[in-house]
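Weekly puzzle thread! Below is a chain. First person to post its structure in token form gets bragging rights.
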Amino acid sequence: MFNIAADMVVNGSKNLPRIGITTDGIRDRHIPCRDELIWLPHCWSPNENTEYYYRRLVKMHGDLPGGFILDDHSLWEQTDLSREEFRTVARSLVVDATEKTQGNIPGHLRSVVEQLDQPQIPWPALLRRYLNQSLGQRRTSYSRRHRRRDEFGVPGITRRRQAHVSVIVDVSGSVSHKELGQFFGEMEKICTSARTDVLLWDCEFQGFTANYCRGDWETFSPDGGGGTDMAAPVEWLVQRKLVGDCIVILTDGFCNWPVKQGFGFIAVISGAAAGPAWGRTVYLAA
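Winning reply:
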């Protein structure tokens, strides 16, 4: 019942919803699954808190108003994110909410926030799982000789090819020095797991480095600082046939996104902005 009361507070009434997506020029809100959500009954006061609605539901002895369907939370248990990726996302959301409330973290949550402070993405595991389970792995093969036992019928060891990743770095004016440092740190991790090309972009081309090696970021001198366009660099790579197995975009998320393409796509966002509608979105801890 408390879950239902909380949904009432969040959703509002069906004729005056507090949720949904509005589009410029269109007054009506788009609300997916409108008829399956829990709404506040129109005859109930709209400005009460969760505890008030909970007490009222208890007095009803569990008989919910007609038309209510309990929303399904079972999907919360279904995810292909690793534990570390989930911790990164959770901490990013907590920090963003804390900044908006002037840093007033309740005492019982402070230790939880500290435990989530692990701003790192496990790139080897993420790339293998997202692109191909065989990338970068060893396997036995009869097409190669065994280095120690060069005999008929004894297979050798071969490695499957390394992933090729094209990294786009947002160097626009909305990206802080701290965020840029985070982006370069992630690039250093990616290049140890895959062959990496790096493209710097804000609203236009700012530099390209093929076969990035650790420490190459020190040679970068982007003149960025303008607006943010993350669709144009993808087109730049596509037109020049420089797209690898996957494109990784490192950005603060305040940008337009490219249209869906036929290659792997990972958006790494330094804040809590919404990610693209395709590919995978990973959030960096603040």
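Puzzle host: Confirmed. Bonus trivia for everyone else. The first strand starts at residue 21 and ends at 23.
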